[in-house]
Amino acid sequence: MRIKEITDVIERFAPLAWQASYDNAGLIVGRPDDEVHAALLAVDVTDEVMDEAEREGCDLIIAHHPVVFHALKRFNSADMVQRCVERAIRRGIALYACHTNLDSAPGGMSWYLAGQLGVERLRVLEPADADGKVGFGVVGELAAPVATVDFMRLIQRTLGARVIRHSDIVRDEVRRVAVCTGAGASLIGAARAAGADFYLTADLKYNDFMTPDSALTVADAGHFESEYCAIRLLDDVLSKNLLTFALRRSAHARNPVNYWV
Prior knowledge:
The longest helix has 12 residues, at 80-91. The chain is globular and about 55 Å long. The protein has helices at residues 3-13, 47-56, 80-91, 100-104, 109-116, 148-159, 188-193, 223-227, 229-239, and strands at residues 26-29, 38-42, 60-63, 94-97, 119-127, 135-147, 165-166, 173-183, 198-202, 217-220, 246-249. It has nine helices and eleven strands. 44% of the residues are buried. It is α/β, with parallel strands linked by helices.
């Protein structure tokens, strides 16, 4: 199957035009008309994921994060990005990224994670189009109020998070929940404006947890933890449209952040 036939399926769901201006989503290594036989789905392109692709005979890696985010001036294996790109070219493995376009797509990353946590009647938290259907983050309601500490336990179990960093618990129960996968500190104000009781995201800084004048509890479950669902989401999108193409979920998608608990 040609790469273009596969990426067209992804881009119908999450068009590249929906990616943020700073992003580098799309085909990074390879040509649209190249033939491929199997795809490996991952969060990041790493040495371990490249090993897995070669071992499993996958000649296409579809990752959430672009392996090349900033311009490369040298290819001399000085770091993991250079090693992976060089290796992909030498081994004939195409590299494709579906990043902020997957974040902002209706039914995309935040929608998927919120659904896993039982948040319903979702709407976009920060719309990027006039119709309010495309944008970052979502907000919705749980079927019934849940104790805040129990909701955090649910997050921890669902995401496999070692720890959850959170602000003061300002309400005993949670009903309206906002979610933004990945780095979502910039949407704290939108979560507050939407009347959320609880905002789940990642990559929060020290001052982001200071919300004494608010009825909002903010929680950081970790960047990788919140975005691991990209593998399942991409698998769902592709498997429904490419019934005979081989897809493999990476067994070596690894969190680069370690915790001493």
